[in-house]
Amino acid sequence: MTELYGEFVAICGKLTEKFNITPLLFGSLGLQRRLNLDLHPDDIDVLLPEKIMTERWQELLELAEQSGWALIDLREHCFEKNGARIAFAANDLKEYAGINTSETDTISDSGAEYQLLTLPQYLSVYEKSLTDDYRQGKKQGKDREKISLIRKALSKLPLAKIYNLLYSRYGELNWWPAKTPYEVMVGAVLTQNTAWSNVERAIANFDGDVTPERVQNADITELADLIRPSGFFNQKAAYLKAVTEWYGRYSFSVPTIQREPLEKLRKELLVVKGIGQETADSILLYAFGFPTFVVDAYTKRLCSRLPFDAGNSYSELKAYFETKLPRDSEFYNNYHALIVINAKEHCRKVPKCGGCPLNEICERYGI
């Protein structure tokens, strides 16, 4: 344990005891713990709930001073002790870089417990910092070095290796095959419990007029007849009406939807008739470009056959991919498409292992 990290652990325990919180170790010291590399951090950065930094600042000040830390910069909430520095700040990572800190790791060490960002979360923070006026100049140079280290570490993780192997075989797949975001929405509903070839036949029946206005104004019987090739056409007609009504709340405007928070839209979609998690995530990722990973039967099959401990439920698998991969919609898009095409080519229900690009890492090769 380095001296700087030891100082953090000491005050971390006191923060938890005093405020009943789990502090977040941030900055270079936190990244050093995550990478297990010596980054020569020169200070300790700790993120705390905003309420502590505002309503209970005086208590925090007293706690720090009782622990031997002397305030040297009130604006930055920075303290010094024996040449070491510690700075406290409100945890605004959600607003700053779209990071949900409930998805961080919780670390227990020497009686203290704290939060630590995952590597993809650190990557999001430092990439955001490159556009941050506050970190212009020297700090941004260091941030670029950290980004390079993070990307190198991520490339060695199992999920990155899977992606690289699949990408080497199949490349960019440019999924989803649709002319408009709304056509993606229609396809996401129609593909439920059927092959994509049947979806294509159903969409062809629209004669190029796959628009929300047409679905909104169509008689339910007429709509069901159009989508008959996709199966379960009466149910799916009702589903299309429902999701189109949801879209109408945003005036059928893609930019309007893209200005909304991902979590809000996902919650709304999940209460729309016929829209489950996979369909909701497909719409949000492929139609509107939100970074939300899609889990389907192919993803579950991949995880069970390689195998790796990603959990069993939809939410567990989704969280596993999102916490271990860069939070990037284009990356999620192609990753999921690569999983799908390889499942159709090789990782079938009855696998066709010969020539599979994942043979070298699959523990169930040849089952």
Labels describing this entry:
367 residues, alpha/beta, Beta Polymerase, domain 2, Endonuclease III, domain 1, 2 domains, 7-stranded mixed beta sheet, 19 helices, 7 strands, 53% helix, elongated
Instruction: Give the integer mean of the pLDDT values.
Output: 91
- Specify the overall morphology: elongated
Class based on secondary structure composition and strand pairing: alpha/beta
**Strand order, sheet with most strands:** 3-4-5-2-1-7-6
The DSSP helix count reads: 19
Folded structure, characterized:
The chain is α/β, with parallel strands linked by helices and 367 residues long. It contains 19 helices and 7 strands. A 7-stranded mixed sheet has the order 3-4-5-2-1-7-6. Strand 6 (105-109) and strand 7 form a beta hairpin. The longest helix is centred in the N-terminal third of the chain and has 17 residues, at 3-19. The chain is elongated and about 75 Å long. The two termini are 46 Å apart. The model has no long low-confidence stretch (mean pLDDT 91).
